[in-house]
Amino acid sequence: MTRHARPQLLAVAAVALFLAAGCSTIASQPTVPPVSSVEPSASAAPSESHPPEASYPPGCPTKQPAALPAGQTRTVTISTSKGTIVIKVEGALSPIAAGNFVALAECGYYNGVIFHRIVPNFVLQGGDGTYGREPNVSLDYAGFGGAPYTIQDEPVTAKYLRGTVAMARTSKPNSVTSQFFIVLSDSAESALGSPQADNYQIIGHVTSGMSAVDAIAAMPNSGSPYNLATSPVAMDKVAVTTP
User: Fold this and answer.
1) How far is CA 195 from the centre of its chain?
2) Total domains in the fold of the chain
3) Is 113 part of any domain?
4) Residue 142 belongs to a domain with what CATH number?
5) SS (H, E, C) the chain
6) How would residue 121 be classed by pLDDT, with cut points 50, 70 and 90?
7) How far apart are CA 39 and CA 19, in angstroms?
8) 183 domain residue, yes or no
9) pLDDT for 35
């Protein structure tokens, strides 16, 4: 399965502490060397920065799934060792991105996948299917992987406030795959919502379980600029229900 040559990041100009780092998180993403669970690699970026291949769950989409209509919502429940996170996904916010997230959650793509990036007081990011389901895979390329397709961009009409859930992307147009992030603080809006930031399609918000999100975000990370989780927490089970 072909992977992106660069990780999806949160590089919102120089303002975002971690964003400009180099991981599939939230914003524009500069070319970066492979990352380690402890510290950035001191070597130059390899000619081909591909993460290890991971199995893709049968029945999961291989191209952009159907959009979630504007009048519809879904409840996505993420069970973790730190507690349960409940997300209300709204088609009215970003129909294409919302439909993509729901389709991947329904087919089991996120089951066992970790939250690989922690930027305190900013965002918690996960959804790289290379990490969690596959045994003995190092975090050297965490943030480089995703579903084997991309989706179309959409305008962002809401704010990136605490509890907001949005899709990670690279600086390239139409580069969203499976990675997503949860905003940890209202102060993130100044960076993520700035005119210089890339559009991170907002798909919903956490309705309960921010205490679990905070507990995961309090786990150790490698520090700036990559902020990789050094004791990553997995999404043990992700389920979708229709209200």
Assistant:
1) 21
2) 1
3) yes
4) 2.40.100.10
5) CCCCCCCCECECCCCCCCCCCCCCCCCECCCCCCCCCCCCCCCCCCCCCCCCCCCCCCCCCCCCCCCCCCCCEEEEEEEECCEEEEEEEECCCCHHHHHHHHHHHHCCCCCCCEEEEEECCCEEEECCCCCCCCCCCCCCCCCCCCCCCCECCCCCCCCCCCCEEEECECCCCCCECCCEEEECCHHHHHHHCCCCCCCCCEEEEEEECHHHHHHHHCCCECCCCCCEEEEEEECCEEEEECC
6) very high
7) 16
8) yes
9) 24
Supply the range of the domain harboring residue 203.
73-241
Position of tokens 């949005």? 166
Structure tokens at 157: 């009409």
Tokens of 16: 């975002």
Dump pLDDT digits (tens) for 78-108: 999 999 999 999 999 999 999 999 999 999 9
Which is nearest to 125 in space by CA: 13, 46, 50, 35? 35
Compute φ and ψ for 104, nearest 5 degrees.
-70, -35
In a domain, 54, yes or no: no
Indicate whether 21 belongs to any domain: no
